[in-house]
Write a structure and sequence with these properties.
The complex is a heterodimer of chains A (about 475) and B (about 350).
Chain A: H1 3-18, H2 22-42, H3 45-79, H4 81-115, H5 122-151, E1 156-161, E2 164-169, H6 172-176, H7 179-209, H8 214-250, H9 252-259, E3 265-267, E4 271-278, E5 283-289, H10 292-298, E6 304-306, H11 319-348, H12 357-383, E7 388-390, E8 394-395, H13 396-399, H14 406-437, H15 455-465
Antiparallel strand pairs in A: 1-2, 3-6, 4-5, 7-8
Chain B: H1 2-35, H2 39-49, H3 53-70, H4 72-81, H5 83-103, H6 109-139, H7 153-156, H8 159-183, H9 186-217, H10 220-228, H11 233-250, H12 254-276, E1 279-281, E2 291-292, H13 300-327
Antiparallel strand pairs in B: 1-2
Helix pairs in contact in B: 1-2, 1-3, 1-6, 1-8, 1-12, 3-4, 5-6, 6-8, 8-9, 8-12, 10-12, 11-12
């Protein structure tokens, strides 16, 4: 055990745990905006009731997201001081921009979204909800941008300073629009929207199974299911495959690990469905579609794919892990299309979806699956980047804080494990409690029409009260 | 060059923004065990900060981000050097979130007592550690030529930093009380009003001791003040602002009082900033290793881009922060969706 390995383990653990929540903030945020828009347009109170219910779950998720997100920001400095010095000019400014532009927006309007339902008219409340959801999306934009710079850095120059080699920024636009960013941001958004839609599907299907809130749950499924289905198809044919193409172009060693390609150059490279990488014998076995990788990633059946042997072994990522994580993600992606297809099919078939128990159970399970797919996707991206912390510029081992001791990191790793187990149990407990409790009946203390619904009315409202 | 000054100033302002905004909700957490007598009163205190505490915590994240971007060398040295202390800040931040979120979920007295206790410990701990960190930055740290520091956590808890920590706890408790004066009614309100002059008195006395200690100890901060002289006006002004806060409080203008309490915090941090200038971290090993606003900063092009961001973003931030507070103005009303 050394501080570097422990720090990597800790960062992986805390990042994975953190990333349970942001996709929900983004995806559920979108669902809440959709619910709000439908309410404002139809005036049917059931949508308002649903909004109140989901907003409470959003509040819980957001609180955990921020608590675990602060950890990430601290860790860059705590465990990765040399990395922070190296990337501060670029990575640091993207993080700061996230804070100034996006996070403030999200955090500022969150209170209005959570507690403003009874203080603001439907349109202003929707505006607050929209701004929170917009903030969540904007936030992801900057974070993915910062992460993408680590994957495919551009717009920099290396300079020697008294503190060592440092990446100076040569062009902010180039540092923002790295190749990895352009392809990944769509992939990340779509996956987060799918997480949001599947959460709504999951809880609503569970209500149907328990024969509670049948009307509300049916309405929610009718909104979320089409969204989920369309996104799952879009993810596969547009964003997912685009990402793979970009990885081949910019990080060939990573793609080789993802598909377990060994020869220096392999034409007609197969795409595995399931498989096992034998690193010692440098072979990959399993069920595969011949030539599919060449076709999808390089555009033609006999296009050559660069394999692992084109790189020195000390530049290999943990191959087995990357391979398996990638294939779990891919297979889940296929499964989502199937779930969406089945769901839509049973729905159109005389509304059988809402009575078919096994299908509803499948929907209940969907949130776990979408979360698993996002996490394994990130594992593919981040384990696949190893041994680099900034691709081809700085090794992970050189990014660690120089004076960090094993004892310190053992303490922090232990603390995070204990704390996050407690946190996760409490989260599930509270989430379950909110779901069991269900949507409250609407008890309007004041009629909705008397609530201020535009900026002028906020001030008139005050005059009326005074 | 001027960009470094601007960012130094902006950084001090953002830290102050955090201490002012999250400061009052930390203060509420520090005081709530002794201030509230019944469960309803506890809930009033919690809901007084309910819609805003999350947003306030964002200021901490932004402070970290701005430090990372503008002065990456300081960010790296400070966070790695204070490793265990930073872990405790994180533990407290997480436990505080958990306590606020979970307390209201069950009616049981035992359940609520546990989370009340954690809410107190976490709020107190964050305030204390922030103060201790500032104290250590004032007296200097063993920073080596590479910008790293080897210092044990116990060594961070020296008498002077602890004193700054305790002062910070009282400052935020006082600040939180000013906020609660706007938010509470009846018995609880009376108690809040009784706390305010006492907390002001204790805080002022602690500040006087700190200032004397600074000059007797002849820390770098004091040296700066002695050579420049005029920045002494800043703490003097802070004292004046405190008096205005007291006057406003006596006249029941609680919002005005809170604003002046906020100004006090801003001025005191400004005084620390002036005292440290041009250093951000002082090395006790060799002054040549000091991290200054020049040698620890990002390149001018980065600082320019960041400044454009701040100029575009911050007016909006201030505007909508103010409107959120405006919409939730007035006494706390506990409804079905409250904490």
């Amino acid at each position: 055990m050394n501080p570097e390995l422990l720090s990597r383990f800790q960062f992986g653990l805390t990042a994975s745990f953190h990333y349970i929540y942001p996709p929900i903030s983004i995806g559920l945020g979108l669902m809440l905006v959709v619910l709000g828009v439908i309410y404002v347009r139809t005036g049917n109170p059931q949508w308002r009731q649903l909004s109140f219910f989901w907003v409470r779950i959003y509040g819980l998720v957001f609180a955990l997201g921020i608590a675990t997100g602060v950890v990430m920001e601290f860790e860059f400095g705590m465990n990765w001081a040399n990395y922070s010095r190296f990337v501060g000019n670029i990575f640091g400014s993207l993080l700061a921009a996230e804070g100034i532009f996006a996070f403030f927006l999200e955090g500022g309007f969150l209170g209005l979204m959570l507690f403003g339902g009874n203080r603001l008219g439907p349109r202003l409340w929707l505006l607050a909800t929209f701004l929170v959801a917009f903030g969540a999306h904007f936030s992801a934009l900057w974070i993915v941008m910062a992460n993408a710079w680590q994957q495919t850095p551009t717009g920099y120059t290396l300079a020697q300073t008294p503190s060592g080699t440092i990446a100076f920024m040569t062009s902010f636009w180039e540092a923002m629009a790295t190749p990895a960013f352009l392809t990944r941001i769509g992939h990340v958004y779509v996956s987060a929207w799918m997480v949001g839609a599947s959460l709504v599907l999951s809880v609503s299907a569970w209500y149907l199974l328990k024969r509670r809130y049948i009307e509300l749950a049916t309405a929610a499924i009718k909104v979320a299911l089409p969204v989920f289905f369309v996104l799952s198809v879009l993810q596969l044919i547009v964003f997912g495959s685009e990402s793979a193409v970009a990885v081949l172009a910019n990080q060939p060693a990573k793609l080789a690990a993802m598909e377990g390609v060994w020869p220096v150059s392999q034409s007609c490279a197969p795409m595995f469905i399931v498989g096992w990488v034998d690193v010692a014998n440098q072979t990959t076995t399993g069920l595969s579609i011949p030539c599919m990788l060449s076709l999808l990633a390089a555009g033609s059946l006999d296009a050559p794919i660069t394999g692992l042997n084109a790189f020195a072994p000390d530049l290999w990522a943990p191959i087995q892990l990357v391979f398996q994580a990638y294939h779990v993600m891919i297979n889940l992606g296929m499964l989502f299309i199937l779930i969406g297809l089945l769901g839509v099919f049973f729905w159109i078939w005389g509304g059988r979806l809402f009575r078919t128990r096994w299908m509803l159970w499948l929907l209940v399970l969907s949130i776990v699956l979408t979360e698993a797919a996002t996490i394994t996707g990130w594992w593919t991206a981040e384990f696949g980047r190893q041994p680099w912390i900034v691709y081809n510029l700085l090794k992970t081992v050189d990014g660690v804080s120089p004076l960090l001791t094993v004892e310190q990191v053992v303490f922090s790793v232990g603390t995070f494990i204990v704390m996050y187990i407690i946190l996760f149990i409490l989260f599930l407990f509270l989430l379950n409690e909110k779901i069991q409790h269900g949507p409250d009946p609407l008890e309007e203390e004041t009629p909705i029409t008397s609530l201020p619904d535009n900026f002028r009315e906020i001030f008139r409202h005050r005059a009326a009260r005074a | 060059m001027w960009l470094n000054y601007v960012w130094f100033g902006l950084f001090v302002v953002i830290v102050a923004g955090y201490l002012i905004l999250d400061g009052f909700d930390l203060g509420v957490g520090i005081l709530h065990l002794s201030l509230a007598r019944t469960d309803t009163e506890r809930r009033v205190l919690l809901n007084a900060i309910g819609p805003v505490w999350d947003g306030n915590e964002v200021w901490l994240v932004v402070t970290g981000g701005v430090l990372f971007a503008a002065f990456p060398m300081v960010y790296a040295s400070l966070f790695s050097g204070f490793y265990i202390a930073m872990m405790f800040v994180l533990i407290f931040l997480i436990m505080r979130t958990v306590a606020i979120e979970f307390r209201s979920k069950r009616p049981g007295q035992g359940w609520r007592r546990v989370w009340d206790f954690w809410f107190f410990i976490a709020s107190f701990g964050i305030a204390l550690l922030l103060g201790v960190a500032i104290g250590n930055i004032i007296i200097g740290l063993p920073i080596d030529g590479q910008g790293n520091m080897a210092i044990t956590t116990l060594a961070l808890l020296g008498p002077f930093p602890l004193m700054v920590g305790v002062t910070t706890v009282f400052m935020l408790a006082m600040h939180g009380c000013f906020y609660l004066a706007m938010k509470t009614e009846d018995d609880l309100h009376t108690r809040v009003l009784r706390y305010i002059p006492r907390l002001m008195l204790v805080f002022t006395l602690l500040m006087v001791v700190l200032v004397v200690w600074l000059f007797v100890g002849n820390f770098q901060l004091a040296v700066n003040f002695k050579t420049l002289v005029w920045p002494i006006l800043i703490p003097v002004l802070a004292l004046g602002v405190m008096l205005v806060a007291y006057r406003a409080f006596r006249q029941r203008h609680y919002f005005v009082a809170w604003v002046h309490s906020s100004l006090t915090i801003l001025l005191l941090l400004g005084a620390v900033g002036f005292g440290l200038y041009p250093n951000l971290l002082i090395s006790t090993i060799d002054p040549a290793y000091n991290l200054t606003i020049f040698n620890a900063a990002s390149q001018p092009n980065v600082l320019t881009v960041m400044l454009v961001f701040a100029l575009i973003g911050m007016p909006f931030v201030l505007l909508y922060t103010a409107s959120v507070y405006y919409i939730f103005r007035g006494h706390v009303v506990i409804g079905p969706r409250s904490y």
